Amino acid sequence: MSVGSLGAGSGLDLESLVKQMVSAQKDAKVGLYQNKINGYESELSALGKVGSAIDNFKSSVKTLNDDELFTGRDAKIAQKEGEEVISITTDRSASNGSYSIDVNQLAKGSRVMSAPGLFSSPDDVVTDQDAKLTFTAGSNEFSIDVKAGTTLSQLRNQVNTSEDNFGVSVNLVDDGAGNLFFTATSAIEGAENSLRISNDVIVRDEDGNVIEDVPEAVSLPIEEEPELEELSEPAPVDEVDELDLEGDEFDFANDGPIPKDKEKEKAEALAQSNAEMDAKAAEKAEVEKAAEADATELNVLPQKNTSLSLNSVSTEGLSAGLYTPFGEEARDAIITVDGIQIRNDTNTFDEAVAGLSIEALAPTEKSTKVDISFDQETVKDSIKEFIDSYNSMVGLLQASTDRGAVLNGNSMIRNLQSSLSTELMSSRGETGTFTSIFDLGVKMSSQGELSLDNAKFDDAMRRGYSEIAPLISGEKGLARSLEKLLDNYTGSDGLTNSLKDSVRRSIDSTEETLEAYEERMVKYEESLRSKFTSLDSRLAVMNAQGGYLNSVLANMQ
């Protein structure tokens, strides 16, 4: 027999004896407490599932209680699946009716490209000076700074990765015949939004800083030479008339008066013209001198044209290297609705027809018929969702309250089941066409589950669609009544959460009681150990004394 620390003196297994005594006192009662806690936790879990089912059902009820459900519109488009030419989104403001729609043209962005022979390699340098390239499409614009020595490949990456890029994609295309084409495509659609690319030279001071405001004198355009008046040509010589005498007032040969001091007047006119030309030349020299002085002070040179000034990748100016191929211009989308042609800068027409958003997907060869009507399919789907969630909830309630189930006899669930049946069976119709949801094709089985007769429901919608809304979502409608009922069971103050809080408090209370009892058992075990330790000590002394007496008696023999 193994001997523990307790009982070492007496030689008895007092350790096992203490454990058995504590277990006999503790285990049965601790088991009762634990079973009680487990029961509460099972009840809490079941209430959680019930609460979730009620919340799901309430969500479907809330969908039915939305007036817009019955005023929504649906667009039926006469087109085959996979061959769609238009897409239409409706809102409740759309008018019921039919439309004939043609897609005449789709909107597109623009594309520009370089001429053949302009580039031959991605490593071609596009500028030998710092410059700025600006991309514009309509109201969209972004710019990039291009450093001297930038190649086509580097420019392509710089444009495509720019954070400000509004939708320009640059590519390099090699035709295999020694020609490399620089192409830029804009995603901005609309006839007024064709892509334009312009460039400007960046002027820097001697420290390399960009000069934002360059004096006008530095960038003054070169003026054309002024046209000179042809005053230096020799004057025509009058014919000599023998009848003309000095001092006469008439020139008989030329039939006119003889000017006085004619040679003198011509000389004075020529001198005045020369003086004006000299003045203009002096003024021009002063302007050029001032510009040169400003340029020297700023350590910059006047702008000049070079073969590497980004003109090759620009669409603006006489020396631009990019052009827009025929058919690659940005263009509007064009549709025709009931014979009325409508243009738009994108393929989505939000304002063409009130209540409709029309998206053009592909050009059409013939008109496409569109019928706008109440969205009966969505109403039908919503009622099916209501039925499914109702059946799911009722099934769970039934399973949770069956004999032996954890919620068997739960009064909250019994009251909910009874209230639901009452609401479903109540008469609500105001016009007499439909008095309850069962008039719409809803049926209830003997187990309390609902189902929908599709044919009867479709017939009901044809006979009186306008009367379904008051029956379901009206002031006294089924959905509104059910939502009010379910409000008592859901939410932080609902009966379901209140009951769960009560169960949680029971769990906490039982756990506290169990903890207190286990503390008492610890003290009980300590008391036993103390008593058996004292007993063990006494038995050890008695054993020692008995051994001594036995040895003495043995020696006396």
From TrEMBL:
<dbReference type="InterPro" id="IPR003481">
    <property type="entry name" value="FliD_N"/>
</dbReference>
<feature type="domain" description="Flagellar hook-associated protein 2 C-terminal">
    <location>
        <begin position="330"/>
        <end position="543"/>
    </location>
</feature>
<keyword id="KW-0975">Bacterial flagellum</keyword>
<keyword id="KW-0969">Cilium</keyword>
<dbReference type="Pfam" id="PF07195">
    <property type="entry name" value="FliD_C"/>
</dbReference>
<dbReference type="GO" id="GO:0009421">
    <property type="term" value="C:bacterial-type flagellum filament cap"/>
</dbReference>
<dbReference type="Pfam" id="PF07196">
    <property type="entry name" value="Flagellin_IN"/>
</dbReference>
<dbReference type="InterPro" id="IPR010810">
    <property type="entry name" value="Flagellin_hook_IN_motif"/>
</dbReference>
<dbReference type="InterPro" id="IPR010809">
    <property type="entry name" value="FliD_C"/>
</dbReference>
<feature type="domain" description="Flagellar hook-associated protein 2 N-terminal">
    <location>
        <begin position="10"/>
        <end position="109"/>
    </location>
</feature>
<keyword id="KW-0282">Flagellum</keyword>
<dbReference type="InterPro" id="IPR040026">
    <property type="entry name" value="FliD"/>
</dbReference>
<feature type="coiled-coil region">
    <location>
        <begin position="260"/>
        <end position="290"/>
    </location>
</feature>
<comment type="similarity">
    <text>Belongs to the FliD family.</text>
</comment>
<dbReference type="Pfam" id="PF02465">
    <property type="entry name" value="FliD_N"/>
</dbReference>
<dbReference type="GO" id="GO:0005576">
    <property type="term" value="C:extracellular region"/>
</dbReference>
<keyword id="KW-0966">Cell projection</keyword>
<protein>
    <recommendedName>
        <fullName>Flagellar hook-associated protein 2</fullName>
    </recommendedName>
</protein>
<comment type="function">
    <text>Required for morphogenesis and for the elongation of the flagellar filament by facilitating polymerization of the flagellin monomers at the tip of growing filament. Forms a capping structure, which prevents flagellin subunits (transported through the central channel of the flagellum) from leaking out without polymerization at the distal end.</text>
</comment>
<keyword id="KW-0175">Coiled coil</keyword>
<dbReference type="GO" id="GO:0071973">
    <property type="term" value="P:bacterial-type flagellum-dependent cell motility"/>
</dbReference>
<dbReference type="GO" id="GO:0007155">
    <property type="term" value="P:cell adhesion"/>
</dbReference>
<comment type="subunit">
    <text>Homopentamer.</text>
</comment>
<feature type="coiled-coil region">
    <location>
        <begin position="500"/>
        <end position="527"/>
    </location>
</feature>
<dbReference type="GO" id="GO:0009424">
    <property type="term" value="C:bacterial-type flagellum hook"/>
</dbReference>
<keyword id="KW-0964">Secreted</keyword>
